[in-house]
Write a structure and sequence with these properties.
18 strands; TIM Barrel; 467 residues; 13 helices; 31% helix
């Protein structure tokens, strides 16, 4: 055990202060989370559209038959509940009474509260806690208390936790299991950067976590309740001054990226191979996600295409006004789009290069794409199955009249489609590949030399040495 690191009491038992980050859409499943718990830590099953299986143990493809979005959304919610229940049951069995099993949900996923109720109702006694981020999950504490499981909100600032505590969590304080501070500049997947923070200038997490502990103390929360540091965690030795530090109180550490490269990790071998090749700068913090949140992923051809698509963008007005005195004659047919002279020339150049279709965005701009890409975008928007509570790409909303009332945004993408495809063997270059900014360490860390891929137990043992 790394010096100063001690077990934490969680769910009535002592466990290692090491948590497996829950990566959505089957990037963590029963094999990885069950093995993590069996090693003495807290394994985390993703309850974001997890895989389920038939009687022969084969994965059930998530195919949607409903003609309308609300019908497909109902199918998606049922897939999510059935899959997460099956994953929890299998993980609990693999854990063999050791560690603990959590589930992770994205608060902004479609039907999140229904999924939580459905999973927790059918897994009583198996799930110890629920981690939840990507949004402000005020109702998380009520749901967790109803099923007598812990809740672990994922936040990125003391201010966010204070708001959650004041509005809801103080009423269910006994079920608060830990507070997960996720570094919004370093973590993989969706991040909690606010409008007041600069994505180009990462802040030191220490004062931010110290501020979080100060808020917790002011609200009477014990120093023994852990703050879990997530995002950018690789070597425990890098966090030596955090451990047994009276300023911070009890701390634990969450690992999202490192467990991707284990034998039990369910991601395809091609994904694991690519992790070994990543270098500094290969992870992009971007804002293309249809959630509207910042997120971090491998800057592969998929993300580069989204970057290029947004660069082929011009503003327009529906009548001649100001500098917009030139009628657009590229990418559009028979519509009055007025643009500047410079943008008219750019649009003609894009059209000549094959980007001959202009798609409107909600911001009164046009993006230029090829006809084939435009057809894919439109089909993906039409095929929306309501995987988010609100989707910028398709304008879906999971309540009321099922629309955000805004124009669908072609600068984004169908996140459900790409995440399902990559985790089930789709091409690595043409799908979204979430990863934390420390993923380049796979190439540099001697633990992985000569292509070594550890078991989860070997990884946990290695982490506990400080390396």
């Amino acid at each position: 055990m790394f010096k100063g690191l001690e077990p934490i009491v969680y769910g009535g038992r002592e466990v290692l202060p090491l948590i497996e980050g829950g990566k959505g859409v089957s990037a963590t499943n029963h094999r990885s989370s069950g093995a993590w718990a069996a090693a003495g830590g807290i394994g985390t099953v993703s309850a974001v559209n997890a895989d389920s299986y038939d009687a022969d143990g084969r994965g059930i493809p998530q195919i949607y038959h409903g003609a309308r979005r609300p019908e497909r959304h109902e199918e998606l919610v049922q897939y999510a509940i059935d899959g997460a229940v099956e994953q929890v049951r299998r993980a609990f069995e693999l854990a063999n009474g050791k560690g603990a099993i959590n589930i992770n949900v994205l608060w902004e996923m479609g039907g999140a509260q229904r999924v939580l109720h459905g999973v927790l109702e059918r897994t009583k006694g198996l799930v110890t806690g629920v981690t939840c981020g990507a949004g402000m999950p005020y109702k998380l504490s009520d749901i967790a208390a109803q099923y007598e499981v812990h809740y672990l909100p994922i936040i990125s600032s003391a201010r966010a936790f204070r708001a959650l505590w004041k509005r809801a969590y103080s009423k269910c304080a006994e079920w608060l299991g830990a507070v997960v501070y996720e570094d919004p500049w370093k973590a993989g997947g969706h991040n909690g950067l606010s409008n007041a923070e600069d994505p180009e200038n990462p802040e030191d997490p220490y004062p931010r976590v110290k501020a979080l502990r100060d808020v917790m103390r002011a609200e009477g929360i014990s120093d023994e309740l852990p703050i879990v540091m997530a995002g950018g965690v690789w070597y425990l030795r890098d966090w030596e001054d955090w451990i047994d530090n009276p300023e911070l109180g009890r701390v634990a550490f969450q690992y999202g990226t490192r467990p991707l490269l284990t034998r039990e990790s369910p991601i395809p071998e091609a994904w694991k191979d690519q992790l070994m090749e990543l270098e500094e700068g290969d992870i992009l913090l971007h804002q293309f996600s249809p959630t509207g949140f910042y997120s971090s992923a491998v800057r592969n051809e998929f993300l580069r295409n989204l970057e290029a698509r947004s660069e082929r963008q011009i503003a327009f007005s529906m009548e001649a006004a100001g500098d917009h005195q030139f009628q657009l004659d590229a990418g559009v047919k028979g519509k009055n789009f007025w643009v500047t002279r410079g943008d008219l020339l750019r649009a003609r150049e894009w059209e000549a290069r094959g980007y001959d279709t202009a798609l409107k965005t909600p911001d009164n701009t046009l993006v230029f794409v090829g006809a084939d890409e435009a057809a894919i975008i439109r089909k993906d928007q039409a095929d929306c199955m309501g995987c988010l509570s609100q989707c910028q790409f398709s304008s879906w909303k999971d309540k009321d009249n099922h629309t955000t009332g805004r124009l669908a945004d072609p600068r984004s993408f169908c996140i459900q489609k790409t995440l399902q495809d990559i985790v089930h063997g789709g091409p690595m270059e043409h799908n979204l590949m979430f990863a934390g900014h420390n993923a380049c360490n796979f190439r540099k860390d001697p633990f992985y030399s000569n292509g070594f891929v550890p078991t989860v137990q070997q990884l946990v043992d290695r982490i506990l040495t400080g390396d």
